[in-house]
Amino acid sequence: MSRERDGGTGTGGGSGTGARTGEGSGTGGGTAAAAILAASAGTGTGTGTALGTGTGGGAAFGPVAAHLSHRVPDLGALELLLAVARLGSLGAAAREVGITQPAASSRIRSMERQLGVALVDRSPRGSRLTDAGALVTDWARRIVEAAESFDAGVQALRGRRDSRLRVVASMTIAEYLLPGWLIALRAERPDTAVSLQAGNSAVVAQRLLAGEADLGFVEGLAVPDGLDGTVVAHDRLAVVVAPSHPWARRRAPITPSELAATPLVLREHGSGTRQVLDAALAGHGGLARPLLELASTTAVKAAAVSGAGPAVLSELAIAEELSSRRLVAVPVEGARLSRDLRAVWPTGHRPTGPARDLLSLTRARPAG
């Protein structure tokens, strides 16, 4: 972690009277703790990355990019020191921060060793800050207040992120799987507004890479370039015809070559269904010119039901039509028509918040 830090290089020419400005006479370039010690004493050889600007009088805040020193205490220790300063008792401070008094005493001693200065004078009457401890406490108060502001800001960012979820999915997943997943998500996150966009697998990738969606789902053969993904379900494609089509009465399976040579009702290029079919028939002459090329699963299904011609559709999309005999599945032998359904997201940006929860639900409620 780097940040603009108060710092100095060279020799400090101050008179040693500036407890807050770090006008010690020591050389610059060391730790915050040593600078605090030099500033509190007014003289000495304490080094001061945190205080002083180098030569001359040493302004308090000289912007120098640096890494946090190993001598900077953690926030928990600083909060404990502030409680001791406010309550005047190590025991009361321990109770306030929720630890035992021995643990609090050990933490204060550890911080004193870390900084190299004594912070607290302990006596039967209570605990009193040393001069250096008072200076460190003043610094600690500003650090803790800044941390509280940082935490509040991060919580606001998380709240804004969690208030909405933008999902983009290819047609079959959008129509037949996502509704159930989104209903389950609403039960877990009732305050999250969800928007769902549907498109082919190429459109899903484009919208994710453009930052227009938080999580996507695709049906193609592989994860699109620029995205990471995980398999959430499995699916098979089926060749279907209307009951009046001659293929509905044939007994022998369709061969890949016969299927490739037949004009079909197809999804458009870029769809996961088309990718799988193109790959399955690539070694058999490739697809014939489509009878119809349509942009949605519903449209392809409607055309097949009307008797326009054979179609290739996801088994998820045709279960009702097969059950009611509005469509008839035609066996195909020798072609691989199965596929994986994947959740995808931009490479290196693992889903968080509602997107992460939706991804978990796809695994808890598998389909296909």
Topology:
Layout: E1 2-6, H1 32-41, E2 63-67, H2 75-87, H3 90-97, H4 101-115, E3 120-123, E4 126-129, H5 131-162, E5 164-169, H6 171-176, H7 178-188, E6 193-198, H8 201-209, E7 215-218, E8 227-241, H9 256-261, E9 265-267, H10 272-281, E10 292-294, H11 297-305, E11 311-314, H12 315-323, E12 328-330, E13 338-346, H13 353-364
Parallel strand pairs: 5-6, 5-7, 9-10
Antiparallel strand pairs: 1-2, 3-4, 7-13, 8-11, 8-12, 8-13
What does this protein structure show overall?
- The chain is an alpha/beta fold and 368 residues long.
- It has 3 domains: 1-72, no CATH class; 75-160, Arc Repressor Mutant, subunit A, CATH 1.10.10; 163-368, 3-Layer(aba) Sandwich (D-Maltodextrin-Binding Protein, domain 2), CATH 3.40.190.
- It contains 13 helices and 13 strands.
- It has helices at 32-41, 75-87, 90-97, 101-115, 131-162, 171-176, 178-188, 201-209, 256-261, 272-281, 297-305, 315-323, 353-364, and strands at residues 2-6, 63-67, 120-123, 126-129, 164-169, 193-198, 215-218, 227-241, 265-267, 292-294, 311-314, 328-330, 338-346.
- The strands form 4 sheets. Strands 5, 6, 7, 8, 11, 12 and 13 form a 7-stranded mixed beta sheet that branches. Strands 1-2 form a two-stranded antiparallel ribbon. A two-stranded antiparallel ribbon has the order 3-4.
- α10 (272-281) links the parallel β9 and β10.
- The longest helix has 32 residues, at 131-162.
- It starts with a strand and ends with a helix.
- The model is unreliable at 1-65 (pLDDT under 50).
